[in-house]
């Protein structure tokens, strides 16, 4: 049995994680913590893997503290930057289990979103233009989403490897309507009541267009990915920091 603790257990995502862990035949719920609770209660003795689903403003601190305590962590909170990831790597190196500590961060746990991201990277070198649109519920606190940023970074890296130059865009003044630019790729964020989590990647050449879209209509769609990550960390995932559920899929 994999002993799983959940940080952010009373939140929108955390409550689903608690339910999913309770429903998994190979897992046992250890501790459920929320904002007012002390993370020191989670130790390698009572927890095999901790799932952290909180908010970007506190997630880094939570992960650093858990790493310092030698606890393996699956992180679903978004808002990660290269600077924050570097701090996690440093915490692992300076922690009590530098050669065995595992931290996993996923921009998205939905299998559909992970595959859309993978397909987008594969398609990027074949198209002159690419843009990303992400659409979420209005209570999401960050924009653009971590998934969209990750997708844009992957597209940009694929284009660079293929020797492609900047994308065509004659816009001179846009008042912000062209979205955030991530490594040369425009990313647009929509916040609308009735939506859950959606991403659309648009590719264009003269006379043709390819659209890759992933839709998660319910938060339950993220749970198979969360449980997969927990099982991998409890078994054969490599030590150190791993980013992206695609690393645990047979792609």
From TrEMBL:
Its main location: cytoplasm. GO terms for cellular component: cytosol. InterPro entries: DapB_C, DapB_N, DapB_N_CS, DHDPR_bac, NAD(P)-bd_dom_sf. The active site is at 136 (proton donor/acceptor), 140 (proton donor). Keywords: Amino-acid biosynthesis, Cytoplasm, Diaminopimelate biosynthesis, Lysine biosynthesis, NAD, NADP, Oxidoreductase. NAD(+) binds at residues 8-13, 37, 76-78, 106-109. Residues 2-109 form the Dihydrodipicolinate reductase N-terminal domain. Pathway: Amino-acid biosynthesis; L-lysine biosynthesis via DAP pathway; (S)-tetrahydrodipicolinate from L-aspartate: step 4/4. It comes from the Bacteria. It holds the Pfam family DapB_N. (S)-2,3,4,5-tetrahydrodipicolinate binds at residues 137, 146-147. Catalyzes the conversion of 4-hydroxy-tetrahydrodipicolinate (HTPA) to tetrahydrodipicolinate. Homotetramer. PANTHER family: 4-HYDROXY-TETRAHYDRODIPICOLINATE REDUCTASE 1, CHLOROPLASTIC-RELATED, DIHYDRODIPICOLINATE REDUCTASE. This is 4-hydroxy-tetrahydrodipicolinate reductase. The lineage of its organism: Bacteria, Bacillati, Actinomycetota, Actinomycetes, Bifidobacteriales. The gene is dapB.
């Amino acid at each position: 049995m994999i002993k799983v603790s959940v940080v952010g257990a009373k939140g929108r995502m955390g409550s689903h994680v608690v339910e999913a862990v309770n429903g998994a035949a190979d897992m046992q719920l250890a501790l459920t913590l929320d904002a007012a609770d002390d993370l020191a209660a989670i130790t390698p003795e009572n927890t095999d893997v901790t799932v952290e689903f909180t908010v970007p403003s506190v997630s880094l601190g939570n992960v650093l503290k858990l790493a310092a305590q030698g606890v393996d962590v699956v992180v679903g909170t978004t808002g990660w930057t290269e600077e924050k990831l570097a701090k996690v790597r440093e915490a692992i190196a300076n922690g009590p289990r530098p050669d065995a500590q595992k931290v996993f961060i996923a921009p998205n746990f939905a299998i559909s979103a992970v595959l859309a991201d993978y397909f987008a990277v594969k398609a990027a070198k074949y198209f002159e233009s690419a843009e990303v649109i992400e659409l979420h519920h209005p209570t999401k606190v960050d924009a653009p989403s971590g998934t969209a940023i990750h997708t844009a970074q992957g597209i940009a890296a694929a284009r660079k490897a293929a020797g492609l130059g900047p994308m065509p865009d004659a816009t001179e003044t846009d008042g912000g309507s062209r979205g955030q630019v991530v490594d040369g790729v425009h990313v647009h964020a929509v916040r609308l009541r009735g939506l859950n989590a959606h991403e659309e990647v648009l590719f264009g050449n003269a006379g043709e267009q390819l659209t890759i879209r992933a839709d998660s209509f319910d938060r339950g769609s993220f749970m198979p990915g969360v449980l997969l990550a927990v099982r991998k960390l409890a078994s054969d995932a490599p030590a150190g920091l791993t980013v992206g559920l695609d690393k645990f899929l047979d792609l």
